[in-house]
Amino acid sequence: xxxxxxxxxxxxxxxxxxxxxxxxxxxxxxxxxxxxxxxxxxxxxxxxxxxxxxxxxxxxxxxxxxxxxxxxxxxxxxxxxxxxxxxxxxxxxxxxxxxxxxxxxxxxxxxxxxxxxxxxxxxxxxxxxxxxxxxxxxxxxxxxxxxxxxxxxxxxxxxxxxxxxxxxxxxxxxxxxxxxxxxxxxxxxxxxxxxxxxxxxxxxxxxxxxxxxxxxxxxxxxxxxxxxxxxxxxxxxxxxxxxxxxxxxxxxxxxxxxxxxxxxxxxxxxxxxxxxxxxxxxxxxxxxxxxxxxxxxxxxxxxxxxxxxxxxxxxxxxxxxxxxxxxxxxxxxxxxxxxxxxxxxxxxxxxxxxxxxxxxxxxxxxxxxxxxxxxxxxxxxxxxxxxxxxxxxxxxxxxxxxxxxxxxxxxxxxxxxxxxxxxxxxxxxxxxxxxxxxxxxxxxxxxxxxxxxxxxxxxxxxxxxxxxxxxxxxxxxxxxxxxxxxxxxxxxxxxxxxxxxxxxxxxxxxxxxxxxxxxxxxxxxxxxxxxxxxxxxxxxxxxxxxxxxxxxxxxxxxxxxxxxxxxxxxxxxxxxxxxxxxxxxxxxxxxxxxxxxxxxxxxxxxxxxxxxxxxxxxxxxxxxxxxxxxxxxxxxxxxxxxxxxxxxxxxxxxxxxxxxxxxxxxxxxxxxxxxxxxxxxxxxxxxxxxxxxxxxxxxxxxxxxxxxxxxxxxxxxxxxxxxxxxxxxxxxxxxxxxxxxxxxxxxxxxxxxxxxxxxxxxxxxxxxxxxxxxxxxxxxxxxxxxxxxxxxxxxxxxxxxxxxxxxxxxxxxxxxxxxxxxxxxxxxxxxxxxxxxxxxxxxxxxxxxxxxxxxxxxxxxxxxxxxxxxxxxxxxxxxxxxxxxxxxxxxxxxxxxxxxxxxxxxxxxxxxxxxxxxxxxxxxxxxxxxxxxxxxxxxxxxxxxxxxxxxxxxxxxxxxxxxxxxxxxxxxxxxxxxxxxxxxxxxxxxxxxxxxxxxxxxxxxxxxxxxxxxxxxxxxx
Length: 1021
Description:
- The protein has 34 helices and 30 strands.
- By secondary structure, the chain is α+β, with helices and mostly antiparallel strands.
């Protein structure tokens, strides 16, 4: 008893220390190499940056796949590693390879923050009624983000939107010509006049003075007074060459926010990223404290941080869902125990198993670093947990019921407990063995279900300890004195009815083959007809949109369309807010253009929705509304799974079709044919080609012969284009703790048209001035917007989601129609399916190997328990028969066979085998005590009717709430619980009626006489 008291205290402490999540982190170990090269087109980024980095990273230890995306001014390479690779180790290997690179244009590759695709735990906007977005952006960069990043466990805080201040020098090229100076002179002058130096220490008497040379620029006046050169003793200042002003970094993205009370066309957003493997609950508590401090103590009056996405809400909602189903399950289990056992004392004694087994599970989870989440806790069936305690308690109660007037002794209880100890032990071991396939999963499914397998196994271990060590002692303390127990008349009548039915079956046992054949054929047919997916949707209680606009659209027009999209969405009363992220962030580490939005749509709690309305209905209505307005192509997803799918498939969708090939035009033609083909298949939604089509470009094609003729280099022309047209940060100004770029570029008049660019002047080594048009051809053309590669091969991606169909059916039809209708050169081009399909194929292939292996291990355990191959095989025969109930439930409820429901079948097989063990163990025991075969089967079935019916009922009712739940967090539970609940109904019937008959036939033909064996054993002694 003292041991279990200790378990209570240690278990509670362990629960307090556990990392609590809404969903497991199902993302792979990934790293992203980001390289910014401002002004470089996608083709140049691919050739000069992406390909060299890919070659350096080829053959990286533990690498699973490498993908890259080259777009304007940005190269992003994503490396996905094999399972088991450690994050810091993998990043170190990447750093070692990158250190050997020497990239052009001064490009410096860097790694993304060490977070997960589901690491966005907090999003906020900065609101103000008196400051403009330039000032808010300054507060965000230099006050808000530094404070939040002080919280332990934060990987990074990124900004989206706002205006970034710059000190800009807009140079008039005519003034350069007038004063006979160049851009290089300007750049050198700014850098040479903007630094502080140290001069060691000057000793004067007993004091040492630190010597500092202070020459840093402080403001625009200092910048304008820089001397660029001197002509005949007259200084030429920077302010003489153009205009100096406070400007802004060229905007690449705009954030808009709308709710039912206000609409903010332009705002500033912060995204808080969780450091991988940190406890989100603890980190979020620190974030909340930091935001509270900023709002009430640090930020100026009129400025406020307003969160719109907080992972705490999702965690609390999912925990509420789990708690609700768990509490309902526990209450149903206790009620059933009272009804079956006939007294509340015995029911409460058995019910003690539930909290104690959970506390044991918490202790072991804490020791093995297994986080608590929706699936790991929600998959625990308390009916199965208390099975061993029920069998133990029922056996002890039988002693008291048989002799209510005498005093019970410890050896009476001990003897009966020992009779059932072995079958209870083996039955529990078999259920734990049933979960072995979950440990053999890979990648996404492994991260999703392995914590569940550990948690359930730990809880079963705790329940076994309670049943073996605690229940006999507690039962003795309660029932040792003479007392008459209540008898359930209805249960006695049911037992009698079952007894007469078993007698009839045993007298004509072969009649069971007809219904068994029907069940077996039905199981096969239902398995073939049920839809097959990878995972059920993981509802996060919100919607995430990927929106594509016409390519090449301007930032201004895109902003107008974003305002319209938010207004359309907020017409629906279920929506609470909408945020549109237009283009890329100011840091440039997103690959999007102004023709792409990422949108967060907040939803009211489902219990506030109109009766019968679901999230699926809302998505259908939103899709219909968006389709009425031209220009939008909208894909629906959810925040966390969207990031995961981007890493898994390389696109923000459930399913992708990749077309590999070198030629851009032909690859796009094939992709468009694939898109057209898939659009005609039922269930395909949100279809689009992930990569934008070619966009307009102004190209300066340099004539190398002309460049050489004038004594110039190609780099002279390139530098002119980079600095004069694109603008370049040539230095920085430090103001307190804030840092601002100094950029130099030509004024708008001299760079605003193709003709103006053609007339820009170059200076030859001998001082002559020649226009760009003399050394190159300036023309309008088109070029690639985004170039994607996978394992060093170019490809285009057709992305899509599925609604109203299952994955296997759709892919089979899609592959067939693409092969028939899409014509291409199979030697130069190839088509590959990916995303959820790839995961499903891998998971099912692994299950096909591991499930038979687990059944083989169960067979060995059964042989160890019974010592007879025929009896072990007999119990295993219930497995295919138990399949029928689960498959029937999936078909009737319109669910699919996915990894979650497959896990349900695994658990179902374990429970069905457990009941078989308890039944057959009793048959064998009675035969050893002297009964003949028929009598032992009939009486044994009658004796075990109540415990088996009880264990099955509590197992079914324990998960019934989870099988019917519809709240956030119920999606993964529901298929698993459905299979167990309805499958166990049929499995119990098989155990009660079919197993006795099969046992009788098998033992009658091949068995030996237990009575004779028992007498011979006595004679030997």
